[in-house]
User: Which sequence fits this backbone?
């Protein structure tokens, strides 16, 4: 029986390819997977918004918790998302990754611990979130001639 320990998606695919081509045997596959997982040692959890202070929520996402929930609803982000590689995550998790990634300064490696996911998963989540928002609302950027962008409205 083949036992794989959670590792990054790219490492997982490379190890399976090497195993499939006969470059490594089953024992080597298990050892490589285990050592890769131990090196990363990331918690396999999502961001815990319920235990975040108001200040932490603002610093990480630039929004308060109530506004995060409202934003998720207004942007019509689905409750559950399955990414192309099979990773399942909540819509709120996608939104938090997008907002955290857009908050300066922020690199994927900087937010791994907060989200408990590796760079490859965070990258896929961010790309999905940005693409989803663009697909839903990109037409609003076709022109900037909107009533709510009037100079008088903006000054209010």
Assistant:
């Amino acid at each position: 029986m083949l036992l794989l320990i959670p590792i990054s998606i790219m490492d997982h695919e490379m190890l399976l390819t090497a195993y499939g081509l006969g470059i490594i045997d089953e024992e080597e596959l298990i050892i490589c997977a285990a050592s890769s997982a131990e090196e990363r040692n990331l918690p396999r959890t999502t961001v815990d918004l319920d235990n975040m202070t108001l200040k932490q929520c603002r610093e990480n996402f630039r929004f308060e918790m109530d506004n995060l929930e409202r934003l998720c609803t207004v942007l019509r982000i689905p409750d559950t998302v399955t990414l192309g590689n099979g990773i399942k995550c909540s819509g709120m998790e996608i939104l938090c990754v997008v907002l955290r990634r857009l908050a300066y300064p922020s690199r994927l490696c900087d937010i791994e611990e907060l989200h408990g996911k590796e760079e490859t998963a965070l990258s896929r989540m961010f790309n999905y979130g940005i693409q989803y928002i663009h697909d839903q609302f990109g037409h609003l950027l076709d022109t900037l001639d909107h009533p709510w962008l009037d100079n008088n409205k903006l000054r209010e």
